Amino acid sequence: MLLPLLFYVFIGIVFIQFLYYIVVFGKFAFAKPKKNNLKRIPVSVIVCAKNEAENVAKFIPILATQNYPDFEIILIDDASSDATLDIFEAFEKEYSNIRLVKVANNEAFWGNKKFALTLGIKAASKEYLLFTDADCYPTSENWIAEMTSNFTLQKTIILGYGAYEKIPNSFLNKIIRFETLLTAVQYFSWAKMGMPYMGVGRNMAYKKEEFFNVNGFIDHMKIRSGDDDLFVNQASTKKNTTICFSPESFTYSKPKTSFTDWFTQKRRHIATATFYKPFDRMQLALFYSSQLLFVLLPIVLLAFQFQWIIVLSLIGFRYLFAWIIMGLSAGKLKEKDAIYWFPIIEIILIFTQLNVFITNIFSKPVHWK
């Protein structure tokens, strides 16, 4: 009786995966890029940095020379112990559109990026805010124009794509970029479904009033991470949120180069997701569970050669539709080379995530610097 039961469960798992990839992820994979009219709305670009001297020295000039008529850059130094503040002060003197916010260590909010960001948001003189991280840079001089072109009277939260640089001949880099691709496909697709649940601080924008409508980060201030995804999870709705995935709107970051550093980063991300709304936690858990069972159940069924022709056919069918959806999505996000090893990378990610879940049960991940 056990093998027939596992067989029918496996059929159900493939069906669940079909619903996710075709019905949900297909919303993004088959989406046609839309050309918005370029806006000329005043924008504050906000960058929060803590001990990022090397990165800000290279990337802030790229932001300061964006092709946009009316923008300021709010540079937030979160009590850095390196030369970050000195570099920021030099930039403030060099560029007339740069404003500096200095954050001293605060006993109640020590090491909390959300406190520093709150001060930066309050200091911003523009109503529309565009966020990126200190270790990020835009792909073009039209980044601000592309992201802000999506603002309308109704759409006041814009979710963008924050990619990672490609490192030649690095399999870890392919894993990291594939995971980033899959994550983007998920949050873009659910946003297009009218149920946005997260965004990435490397590339997102919103109107200042959205921040104050939910009292900023106050409801999750004690959670060190989540200045991006927890805010979106709380503030985004079907009516006020849209996505931007034009190539000129991308930002790029330097990826981790060791498995240990990447694993630590994943621990923070997954720990933050436990604070999402119940439905969002449920749909993410269901997707991951269906992935895990899709890998495990065929091993048992094929070991006993139970309905092995049907099992192999279902495996092939699932990889076919998943590969098509991920391939189309990768084309939109310029990540095609990351899916060539799709089956192997997916299995590695599934068991890495399982390891993260178990590790997080016994110890808390470290947040911010």
Strand and helix map with partners:
Elements: H1 2-24, H2 26-29, E1 43-49, H3 53-64, E2 71-78, H4 84-94, E3 98-103, H5 113-123, E4 128-133, E5 136-138, H6 143-148, E6 157-159, E7 162-164, H7 171-192, E8 204-207, H8 208-213, H9 229-235, E9 241-243, E10 251-253, H10 259-273, H11 278-303, H12 308-332, H13 342-362
Parallel strand pairs: 1-2, 1-4, 2-3, 6-9, 7-10
Antiparallel strand pairs: 4-8, 5-10, 6-8
How would you describe this protein?
51% of the residues lie in helices and 12% in strands. It is of the alpha/beta class. It folds into two domains: 2-28 and 279-360, no CATH class; 33-259, Alpha-Beta Complex (Spore Coat Polysaccharide Biosynthesis Protein SpsA, Chain A), CATH 3.90.550. The strands form two sheets. It has a seven-stranded mixed β-sheet with strand order 3-2-1-4-8-6-9, with helices on both faces. A three-stranded mixed β-sheet has the order 5-10-7. α10 packs across α13. The chain is elongated, with a radius of gyration of 21 Å. 41% of the residues are buried. InterPro entries: Glyco_trans_2-like, Nucleotide-diphossugar_trans.
